[in-house]
Amino acid sequence: MTYPTVVFDLGNVLIRWDPRPALAAGVGDAEAARLLAAEDFDFAAWNAAQDAGRTFADGVAEVARSHPHWAEHVAAYGPNFAASITGEVEDTVRVLRDLHGAGVPLVALTNWAAETFPHARERFDFLELFDDIVVSGEERVAKPDPAIFEILARRGGRPLTECVFVDDSPANVEAAAAAGMDAIRFTDTGHLRGDLRARGLPV
Known about the structure:
By secondary structure, the chain is of the alpha/beta class.
């Protein structure tokens, strides 16, 4: 039987990610919390630029110019990034292993900085189950930009209409659907097996 390719996001779908421990390793937990709650600085947007290919050095330099009072905080993130990876999402990893065991083609499509993705490769052996991993920082374009789905199609070797996409971001799910993929919004591990079974996948 020919199955569709299942395309997984990684962060908070298969790998638990929380920037606060990494920031806290450099500036303390209270200051990390203060940065993440700041009204004058958007850490998520800053981090997304690294996911789209900007280097951490350039990102820190930009903050030093625009928000110097936060420069020390963001400078702590890259060197302590490993602390932000807090473990695997066990139930989803079991789904991934079941799909792999049944011969389902698997690809990962992740918004992740090129400089820090090696931490994930070193830590999580289940990443070896993927036929390919498209890392936004290496491609210099990130979800939900339509261009990254075009890259996925070229590298995956099959039409996006023959792919099932799993991601926790509503914007990414919407973009994947617009690109022609059968997109599942991941909210917790409880629904994923049922969603995949409904599509004829052997889990």
